[in-house]
Amino acid sequence: MAQRKCGTATALQQRVKEIPSLQTLIQQTEQKLLSGQNRPHVEALPQQVTIPVVVHIVLDDTSMVTTAQVLSQIDVLNKDYNALNPDISKVPPVWQSIIGNTRFNFCLAQRTPGGEPTTGIVKVKTAPGQSYPISNAAPDVKYNSTGGSDAWDTRKYLNIWVTRLANNFLGVAAPRGFGYPSEQEGIVVHYTAFGTTGSVGNIYNLGRTSTHEIGHYFGLKHIWGDDNGDCSVDDGIADTPLQGNNTYGCPNFPVLDLCSPTYPGIMFMNYMDYTDDACMHLFTQGQVDRMRYFMENMVVTLSASDGCNPPAMFDFDASLSNISNPIGKICDPGFLPVVLLRNKGIQTLNTVTIWYQVNNGPLTSMKWTGNLASFAETQVTLPAANVGIGNYVLKAYTQLPNGQADQNVSNDTATSRFRYDAEVTLPFEEGFENDSFPPPGWDIYNPDRSFTWERVRDVGRNSNASALMRNLGYNTNDQIDDLLTPVINAQGADSVFLFFDVAAAVYSDPNSQRNKWDTLQILVTSDCRKTGEMLYSKWGPNLITRQSPTQTEFVPTPQEWRTDSVDLTATALKGKFQVAFRNISNSENNIYIDNIRIVSRSLNPLLRQNGVLLNPNPSSGIFWLTFYPWPQDLMQVSIYNVQGQLITSQPASAVGANNRMTFNLVNEANGVYFVKLIYRNGAKTIKLMKVR
């Protein structure tokens, strides 16, 4: 890494491009900071603020970042943010008087969000060579579900992810007030630019990357304002000189540029420039005022966090960490509650009583027995319950660990919210015309909590709305998002078919080879999405309804829609089911679906009775054999004339869509023919009359 690269401004620009409405939020936050940082006021913050830090080491070899390296970084932060860094004497005399001291102190967290002792360091092993792009401030490193590490409560902890960043970026910040989900707030730092020892590199070896990114986290801009050198944008700080562009390396003072052409020039030694670690020395008092105002008004809960205080320990402390079932949508009125029991006590847990209650219903209990070590946990399945259609809250709590009074009742209770929706029958239709989304009884699966299915107005197939996946702005490959129908009861149906309208486009040339395309799949699930059978999958040239590549957001014209159909019979008739419309994003362009229709079709009574139907009969030459159900033991079908001569024959593999086999006797003479169906254990003959 020859030159410093911070991804904060780049990630934010990309995010605004994908979600233009964020620009208004960012402008409002900036205006709030500008108006507040210079206004005389009495701070609600204490003079000294202590900030708990949790460091998530997310690497293929987590030992590359040692505890000593983490501690060295905490030491640097405490010195840099309190103007105690030894190299502060290198600040030119002209600026010595405006050196700022935030009075922010950083500590490695001593307690987890759940109140247990911790080192403040979390280690997660990734795939070999795994690196993370800075797009959207590197969200994949911030979730267990995508191979990263879930943030600790960002209201109470400063989360630092130490990992391998792609494309030579050293760090990226996601501050509050700029449109990032709360669980993504914090900073990400490349592991060779973290701390002052261990795996640290040669140039960015004094921990100043974290100092820089935490400056962004507390609302600071780059000192040059990210205006590409044209002096049009300032950093919003009065006592930092106007600066045209970033500064690399370690220049000699003074440095003049087009924006500050006279002495003393630009403040290249400021932590918010791009100079080498050895040449970064200060925050100004103006920057400190902005950061303290940001802390007081945006993240004040950090200052009141108890994360730096070791927790009290008790001999007997049984806790319910969470309820894993039921939660969200359930697909059956009967369910088994499942809770996570955790022993937070010093003594081994052998028995505990667990109670639960649904809404204000009766209490149900069970006595758990086992051998649960201190800070170990286990799943416990509670007695079954039943509910009707509606929304519910399940509350569960522990009592009498090892027969003793629980010494810390604050963590005994867990709750979950769930619902059981009415089933629907066929025919079923949905055109997304009503404002509620997902529609009643529908559900969305959005594991990365980013882009997902949404309702869009004024775009539809002869309608006023449709469902949309914005793949153009979804800059994460192979992410799955499901839109699921209500539970459907097709009892009594002979066959079930899905029809829906689709419109799609791609960003890339549709003729590109080996491109990763957005994919639309249709799955049928009979167990509330635990498993599913895929019945439809289209991508790229097979999916799109606009043939030309489209680099702007695709909005279909009335002619750019297509109706697709899926035969659901084989899976839908096994029992109650849901249909999942699955989007797999690869950053191409938008996919729309509309006018969803799931219908049943009745069998001809003769087909139901006999298992096979020849139609038409008499025939002019072309006729079909239709089977019900699929003829698993059929070997072949042969046709003979009245003289017993073989006219034609087809193997069982010729049975195609809709369980149908087609024959053509147009060139044969009129008269009587015999259609012989040969099975493994017998045969059946049907008489056919051919007429002109």
Automatic annotation (TrEMBL):
UniProt GO MF annotations: cysteine-type endopeptidase inhibitor activity; metal ion binding; metallopeptidase activity
Gene3D superfamilies: Collagenase (Catalytic Domain)
Signal sequence annotation: none
Pfam families according to UniProt: Peptidase_M43, Por_Secre_tail
InterPro entries: Chagasin-like_sf, MetalloPept_cat_dom_sf, Peptidase_M43, Secre_tail
Residues forming coiled coils: none
Entry's family note: Belongs to the peptidase M43B family.
Protein's UniProt name: T9SS C-terminal target domain-containing protein
Naturally occurring in which organism (per UniProt): Chitinophaga silvatica
